[in-house]
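From the pipeline queue, job 12 of 40. The input is one protein chain; the requested action is below.

Action: predict structure.
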Amino acid sequence: MKDTSFSIIIMIFLVLLTGIGIDSQINSYTKIYPVEVPTVNLPLSLRQSNWIEHGYGSCVWASLISLLRWQDRDDLAATIDKNYGGGEYLPGIGKKLNAINVDYAVARGDQGFLEWACNTRRGAAVSIRYGGHMVALVHINDSYVCLLDNNNTAMYVWIPRDEFMENWRQSGGWAFTPVYSPVPPLP
């Protein structure tokens, strides 16, 4: 017991003598990394533009393809790109996703689902414009949401959260996301 107490006193003395405090030791091993914004920060190469097939836009499929690419499922994105197109509505998309074995989660009117989808870096396909269009929700916080509109994939669209929520609810409040592993955050 006496030897242990003496050893502790000597260690404290040496730390103080060399000018190295415990705080500076901890800080030298701690690095703060930047937060990625938007949370689902798709590179341009992964963003799928809307396309017209059979006279209908493919905004649902385009949003899903972008999210699948982000979640490292290029195989499923390619299958969808090759086999599906035209207009689509959320109630009917489940059958098609099940047929090609896409794992997904879906919700209606649940803000918590949107937050979960973004916080887990998956994003979500969401209905807007009174149900006439679908885009990818790529970020959400207390004040704003960020959307990737497949009609213009060159830029993100930031809008006030309250404005988005009102539009989303009036559009049926649909949202879905593939549930695979997204790319890791920035180092």
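Job complete. The first strand starts at residue 52 and ends at 53.
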